[in-house]
Amino acid sequence: MEEYAETHGAPPSYFVLTMGCQMNERDSETIAGLLSGMGYAPAASKDEADFIAVNTCSVRENADKRFFGLLGQIKKLREARPGLVVAVCGCMMQQRHIVDEIGARHPWVDIVFGTHNIHGLPRLAMGAVLGKARAVEVWDEGGDIVEGLPARRGSPFKAYVNVMYGCDNFCSYCIVPYTRGRERSRGAGEVLKEAKALARDGVKEIMLLGQNVNSYRGALSAAGGVADFPELLLMLEEVGGLERLRFMTSHPKDLSDRLIDAFRRRKTLCNAIHLPVQSGSTRVLGLMNRGYTKEGYLGLLEKLRDASPGIAVTTDFITGFPGETEEDFRETMDLAERARFDSAFTFLYSPRRGTPAAEYEDRVPAGDKHRRFSELVGLLNAISAEKNAARLGRVERALVEGPAKTGQGIMSGRTDSGRLVNFAAPEGLAGAMRDIRITEAKTFSLFGELLPMEGGSAGEGRAAAGPCEVPDRGGREGRRREGRPADGP
Ligand code: SAH
Ligand code: SF4
Ligand code: F3S
């Protein structure tokens, strides 16, 4: 790399494209960290980069389609610049038929690796740069968790921290257990160490990541002992400097009274939970292998709201699951009406090869699937808008994240409940925790007025900078496209 810098006047550069969820985003941060460690500098866009990594998602079919579309664009870049190194990785690569398809249709791709061997990237990248030989390395299963990998985070004051990898739930529609392997928890000490280091670095908010955090069982020390998720939260709430803790995702079938209690006595834990319900029909929930009933789910909401009044509850729905009848769908509408979610993602069922549901007959006709989808999204959006409107006039504390997507002099932040709030403020405020009086409410966002700090100072902040391109709203690609229309600030 030094030689490259001498001849080109600058180090080679990289760009990571992230196509999936928060876990995928966190992996991209590791990929960026590993490439930085090799001497690569971040590029402003894929068009300028010397090394492009595409971190893929396989959760729905449109994610697969977008990937192949993107590869077509990158192929043109590669034809114009034969020195460009292209790596593809992430969940799609854990499926043999996808790797075969890349080999057949895109043999020019230099490196293919999976979700379990990200740590092998420097060796693969070096091989590609030196020899330009094609390398395909995908592990079927994750071995021991590799700790201590570098990361280049997307934000200086918000961070993702993995608490566990993989998923053992095998919901009948879902590809994730196949792409991410079996459940493995990180040691509690490792999680705590990372959180403390992040807090020392100025991080204010941590989002703990796991496909089902309720299954977390992390070793306390080499001498023995195991912490469960509520215990881990207790420890993390004591980390000085951290203002906010969030986590996702929590599976309703395992949401324990002890986790609900964590909200009752919360300190830095935000008053918000993402609790994907998927369907309101107990029959469909059975076919989905979700392990709870409609009434059971509504009962959980009651307990949560009793323990922590005002808790924001968000969820995911799937419409058009095989065998879903009109009556099942009415159950879903009824649940949505009664649950009063703060916001929700709705997805059209997408058959994934290798999952049990993909073999179910009784597919819902596309017309019905889309009609139900629109009806559900209409109801969910109306409820979100009402719940946002109820916040008018209130003062909410926000973590200021950075400039809003539209409008000069407008900054964006998130409230404790996770709502997007925009307000007029100087850019230097990024990273500060500030009070905002809500003056306007839309379906998916709030607008407000920045209140002066007690004591009069403007508050400290730093600019956000990131070498990765990530999709909107935490990478959950279904939300805008399928779930709901974009709503400008
Ligand atoms: N572990 C998380 C889910 C990750 S996938 C959880 O259980 O909540 C995120 C969401 O994608 C799921 O909640 C589900 O609503 C949706 N999803 C997953 N597989 C899907 C499929 N085959 N078709 C449509 N939506 C799907
Ligand atoms: Fe998929 Fe279910 Fe696991 Fe979530 S809990 S990742 S939906 S299998
Ligand atoms: Fe993988 Fe996340 Fe997509 S686990 S399949 S990148 S939703």
Secondary-structure blueprint of this entry?
Blueprint: H1 2-8, E1 13-18, H2 22-37, E2 41-42, E3 51-56, H3 61-80, E4 85-90, H4 96-105, E5 111-113, H5 121-131, E6 135-137, E7 158-162, E8 164-165, H6 176-180, E9 184-185, H7 188-200, E10 205-209, E11 217-219, E12 226-228, H8 229-236, E13 244-248, H9 257-264, E14 272-274, H10 282-287, H11 294-307, E15 312-319, H12 326-339, E16 343-348, H13 366-389, E17 395-403, E18 410-415, E19 420-424, E20 433-441, E21 445-450, E22 468-469, H14 478-483
Parallel strand pairs: 1-2, 1-3, 1-22, 3-4, 4-5, 5-6, 7-10, 10-13, 14-15, 15-16, 19-21
Antiparallel strand pairs: 8-9, 11-12, 17-18, 17-20, 18-19, 20-21
Helix pairs in contact: 8-9, 12-13
Describe the structure.
It is a single chain. The chain has 489 residues and is of the alpha/beta class. The chain folds into 4 domains: 2-141, Methylthiotransferase, N-terminal domain (Rossmann fold); 153-270, Transcription Regulator spoIIAA, CATH 3.30.750; 271-389, Transcription Regulator spoIIAA (2-Layer Sandwich); 395-455, OB fold (Dihydrolipoamide Acetyltransferase, E2P), CATH 2.40.50. The strands form 6 sheets. Strands 1, 2, 3, 4, 5, 6 and 22 form a 7-stranded parallel beta sheet that branches. Residues 456-481 and 483-489 have low confidence and may be disordered. It has 14 helices and 22 strands. The longest helix has 24 residues, at 366-389. It binds S-adenosyl-L-homocysteine, iron/sulfur cluster and FE3-S4 cluster. S-adenosyl-L-homocysteine (SAH) is lined by residues 59-60, 173-174, 176, 211-212, 249, 251, 276, 278, 316, 318, 347, 349-350, 352.
